[in-house]
Amino acid sequence: MKVLYLSFIIVIFDQVTKLIVKGFSIPFLNFNYDGMYIGQTIPVIGDFFRFTFIENPGMAFGYDPGSAFKFWVTLFSLLASIGLIIYIYIIRDKSLSLRIAIALILGGAIGNLIDRMFYGVIFDYAPLFYGRVVDFLDVDFFDFTLFGKSYNRWPIFNVADAAVTSGVLILILFYRKHQREEDELSAESKVVPEKLTGTDTSANSVNTINNFTDDLAADSPDSLPDGKTNNGKEIQD
């Protein structure tokens, strides 16, 4: 369960970077930080990598399922995050690569879930569960088409998205290893019942000793017919 620390770090880092980009205020400290305005771009490595602030109204790659499905998307993210926490507990004794992969996916899922659940309320533009996800990492990539939309750059993403993608890549790269572990566990689970249903050799040994003792008692020269005993001396009638 220590891998949950990794999930926690991802959530904190994701939220801090989003607040730096979006801006925030602390009224009781009379503090206000404006951040970037929507659509603003700041070059980092020329045109290849830059910060571009947008708000994603829906799912990954900017796909918007519509306001009618917004609540269900957020609810599904919440349930999926709970399921991942339970799954991390289940695999607590499995390989480190598997646990790290799930922890990365969990951290990313919670990071974006916070945006969807609370940002609308925190920034006063939508009710609970209807917030928008803050994206700002803008990377140049090859041209491609997805969901009927053409892109000449990679869709703008955030730290949470990067964590989820990294977790999925680890699962793919270590798939054979994880599958081999599952096969080994299955094999061990089959061996145990066979051992339990096998012959109890210790019990048989005890029975053998008891039978041997009875035979010695029956064949002992100290036992004579008619209840007479011979202790090394001749017994007179």
Descriptive overview:
- There is one protein chain.
- 53% of the residues lie in helices and 16% in strands.
- The protein has 237 residues and is of the alpha+beta class.
- The chain folds into 2 domains: 4-173, no CATH class; 175-221.
- It has a 4-stranded antiparallel beta sheet with strand order 3-4-5-6.
- Strand 5 and strand 6 form a beta hairpin.
Quick summary:
With 237 residues, the protein is α+β, with helices and mostly antiparallel strands. It is 53% helix and 16% strand.
Features:
two-stranded antiparallel ribbon; 2 domains; globular; disordered C terminus; 237 residues; 6 helices; 53% helix; four-stranded antiparallel β-sheet; alpha+beta
Which regions contain 5 or more consecutive residues with pLDDT less than 50? 231-237
Structural class by SSE content: alpha+beta
What's the average pLDDT? 83
Helix content: 40-55%
Number of domains: 2
Share in β-strands? 15-25%
**What is the helix/strand order?**
HEEEEHHEEHHH
Count of DSSP E strands?
A: 6
Radius of gyration: 35 Å
Largest sheet, in brief, is: 4 strands, antiparallel
Number of helices: 6
List the helices and strands and how they pair.
Layout: H1 4-22, E1 24-26, E2 31-33, E3 41-45, E4 49-56, H2 67-90, H3 96-122, E5 133-146, E6 149-153, H4 159-173, H5 175-196, H6 201-219
Antiparallel strand pairs: 1-2, 3-4, 4-5, 5-6
